[in-house]
Amino acid sequence: MEAHGRYPARVREIVCVSHPVCVRAIRAAQILLGGWDYWNIGTLAGTMNGADVWRIDVTSTIWTSTYDPYRVGGVVGNASGSRLTDLVVDIEATSAKSLVTGVVSDATTTNIRRVAASVVLDGFGVAGIAGFSIRVT
Amino acid sequence: MIDGDVEGDVEAKEYASGGVHWATDSAFLRLAADVSVRGKRAGGLIGSAFSSTLDEVRASGSVTGEAQAGGLVATVGNSALRDCMATGDVLVTGTGTIDGASAGGLATGISQGSTVTRCYSAGRVENLSGPGPNLQTGNDGYFAEGGILMPFVALCRDKGNRVVIGPGVEQRYTNDKHALGLESVVPVLLIGATTRVFAVLRRWRLALRPRNVYPRVPDWEERAMTSDTRAQWRWLAGTYWYVLPIDLPALNFDPDDAKLTWLIDQTVWHISDYANGYFWGVAAVMMYDAGERMPQRGPASRIAHLSLLGTVLPDGKVQITFIPRLRGTSGATTGFGQIVEIGGAWVVEMQMSTDRLGARVLHWANMVQTREGDPSWERLPGLTHSVPEMLDGAVYPRLDAG
Question: CB–CB of A125 and B14 under 8 A?
């Protein structure tokens, strides 16, 4: 899977029913985005609201060119009101001016349960799992 | 809630943390980071935590910051830390123009309103920022400034020579050196009740210090590590395992005529529960002679259900005992093995020796996981059965709550 374009994918809801299917869809994904008008990128989705995602393996390399998005997540850039459960994440990500994270860059009100992550990250700010954890109870 | 494990290598121009950059009004439970962290301001697990709870969390990677480095958290405010530890080395390089550079074994600053309970740090803590308004919080509750050790917040030893924070269950901190800088912190440290507390801590430290050997790594830490590693295999609960095709053959020995033959032995495990290094569930076994088709009827077509009781050591060594459901049938079988990670997947390398109608069956196999949706879930190697069909009717061990 390779994504090009000005905008990151915007996904309102993702329900991952079949683990192998998700693995096939996501494995070795590489995201290459150009342009100016974007803020969030992630292997699975740039933005995620109210999504329930579970039992997925994400193996991905993320880099950015021409300009840096605001938030880069190994799985999701910006997730709110979502649940991510039983994740196995192997991420290598570089974005010099971004908050680069292994799973979710902005995890406001998003629960992240049972994640096993292996990360190599480089950015303005970096965090192995999540950038902002706001009201995650 | 955020929980899980993360390992790796992260580097930032500014803010770097092994797990979470910034937390507000959040809860973390059993979150562990084994991450080499480098940045201007660095935290082994969390960068900044405010109005949050951190329970049973740990950081074990090295933490290097130009200006700030906290073994577990860089800065903490109005938060509760319980049962936590940081074991990686902490280094502040002091490169660039940096005032107030600070290094802390657990954190660089813990502000008023925070509580720290049963936490400790054990890594080497260094601040290379040189002369100036710089702080270094060591693992024993001291910071160094100009080569002089002074008592600071945090760690002391209780009567059992355990490293704890505070003289009891809880210690409330009254300073925030990150915000105040040394010039402000020192007066805070030296006035009123704070001074008396530190004097008590210093006396305890000296009194309880072993006469000959200073225990850099206290035995409490080892026990804490044991407790921690007992939890690391909790993911075993709810997992299903089966035998790969290449490992299906098992060696059968008939003592009556000293004859060796090959069998096909497919076994499914469902580990239903895990607690404290013990796990249990059921095993479903089907064996038949190699070179023959899988029996469709008769006694040989029956699936044997066994209760599965196991233990796992922190390094992954396992012992599993398989017990027939009914007393009076053939005795229990005990196998030994090792959980290893191969190519990103967990594998249980097992060796077994079991009785089979008076014959002896030896089998070693790599047990790998299967999940609903996997091809192996629908049809197991060597059989026409699915995992649910193999486990149908099995009776699971239960932990008596009473």
Answer: yes
Q: What are phi and psi of B177, to 5 degrees?
A: -70, -25
CA B269/CA B287 separation, integer angstroms: 15
Q: Do B26 and A125 touch (CB under 8 A)?
A: no
Comparing CB atoms, the residue among A96, A100, A119 nearest residue B6 is A119
ipTM: 0.80
- B191-214 pLDDT, tens per residue? 333 333 333 443 344 333 333 322
Which of B9, B16, B19 faces A129 most closely, judged by CB atoms?
Answer: B19
Which chain B residues have a beta carbon less than 8 Å from that of A22? none
Q: Give the C-alpha distances (Å, rounded to integers) separating B300 from A38, B203, B296.
A: 63, 74, 8
Q: What is the tens place of the pLDDT at every residue in B353-400?
A: 988 878 899 999 989 888 887 778 888 888 888 999 999 999 999 887
Q: Where are the beta strands (DSSP E) in chain A?
A: 2-3, 10-11, 29-31, 40-42, 45-49, 52-63, 71-73, 76-80, 83-101, 104-106, 111-127, 130-134
Nearest CA in chain B to A104: B20
**Residue B205 parent element (H or E):** helix B192-208
